[in-house]
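User: Fold this, then the next.

Assistant: Folding the first:
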Amino acid sequence: MAEGRMLKRAIATSKKMAELETDSARLLYTWFIPFLDVEGRFYGDPDVIKGSIVPRIKDFTAEKVKECLADMQRVGLILWYLVNDDKYLQFTVFEKHQNINRDRESKLVFPAPEDSCVTPED
């Protein structure tokens, strides 16, 4: 994984970002970006996300993370999915907004989505 990623100005005028119900979901989405692998994927377990992305923000509980993920999936910013009973997520427009140099990136860390999406009740 890269140490950092680009955050382009287009995020400010994104209709999908505007459709998110909370600023918490917007913040979490942007803070995810440097943690994504070369394909725009990361763990989808709310507890892991809490511990990795927002470990020091007490207001961000695992339940709040789960609500934010459901909202991101609802507007089409992420695909939240299962592989072998483990949750992962895929940012849907990652390649459009990142200039990836695959020769310098580490190998894929997270499995590709199959046909199973996660719902907030899962």
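Now the next one, as you asked:
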Amino acid sequence: MMKELFSNSYLFGSNAPFVEELYEAYLENPDAVSGEWRSYFDGLQNTPGAAERDVPHFPVIGAFAEMAKRPPTRVVAVGDDKRQVSVLQLINAYRFLGNRWAQLDPLKRQERPEVHELEPSYYGFTEGDLNATFNVGSFHGFSGDHASLREILEAVRQTYCSSIGAEYMYITDVQQKRWIQSRLEAVRGRPGYSADTKKHILRRLTAAETLEKYLHTKYVGQKRFSLEGGESTIVAMDELVNTAGRLGMQEVVIGMAHRGRLNVLVNTLGKSPKMLFAEFEGKGSLDLSAGDVKYHMGFSSDVMTPGGAVHLTLAFNPSHLEIINPVVAGSVYARQVRRGDEEKKEVLPVILHGDAAVIGQGVNQEMLNFSQTRGYGTGGTVHIVVNNQIGFTTSDPRDYRSSMYCTDIFKMVEAPIFHVNGDDPEAVAFVTNLAMEFRNEFKKDVVVDLICFRKLGHNEQDEPM
């Protein structure tokens, strides 16, 4: 009797875990168990009523264990239309108003304003709804059509409330709005640049800052209208020129005022620093008898880009702010006619504005009024506002404009506006590239509002009070 018991000891209840491990090993690899056990388990697979061969259990058990750790989710029922509509309204609210919460000011002078439409509670949602799943509508950036409310909030805030604040929902053309959304939302407002690209951006910033520091040290007190605080302008111009080359453009005509002009001359157009220093020392060329100041001088050059050579022209500038802008537009139009550039793809107008001048000078409204006309249109201008948040000596916007942004004037022609924090040079490069591609695609004006600061006075002879 004892012999019979020992021969069947594997059937004891206490040995069940041992048998289960053997069976699991058999399911993963039948050769992993002895021939006797393999024959026994093969017999189980052939038992009448068995639908199919058994599969390993451990992966299934593990999957259910992981599911148990996840917070409960709930897919919104088809009949729950009101809540689904509220989610789509929330997404659109960020497209319209997310720029109000964007982190745009390097100086962080203002607290975040109250914008109730950006709060989930405005639509009746609570903390308990964050794990509920909804259809994301036309929002890009998700692999599927559904996401939890928590994931949707994270996506719209990353896209519209980080270093980039986009304004474009006033555009009538749905195709243009969808184009912008597909490019902004798919990457959530972050370009994901490679290490080499980031190093290139750093070199551009270093070149801009080094020039300003040298001039400040070598030529103390001389007027140069420093770019310090807005060095990312050089990053924007570098991206603009390289993108122009990639898009097959042959010429770029630039108009700008005095702020940062010397830096653009050297670090964008390639003017020799030796020539610039000679002008500071009164040893400049005498072939220009007008005797104009160095920060009004124009220049032209051929610059090599990865897409080929691009001819750059910086128009000579008068002291009257913004008045060079229609001159640039006329020059571009003439060059397009000369080239037979009917599609407006070969010659690009670029204008750099100051934040107070762009909203304060009526010539901009006049120029925008002509921008899409048949007789004067140039296929769209790329506008870069070097927004150092101070006009001459007035630093409170309530004292020099009545609109929320200095760029609101561009809404009259439905130009998209990309506000960007100047202390995020990668975001600056990203929106500049986006602006260039938009202009190339739709032949319309587009605006980059580069929000920065002014480190020194209006000019270097100012003394702080």
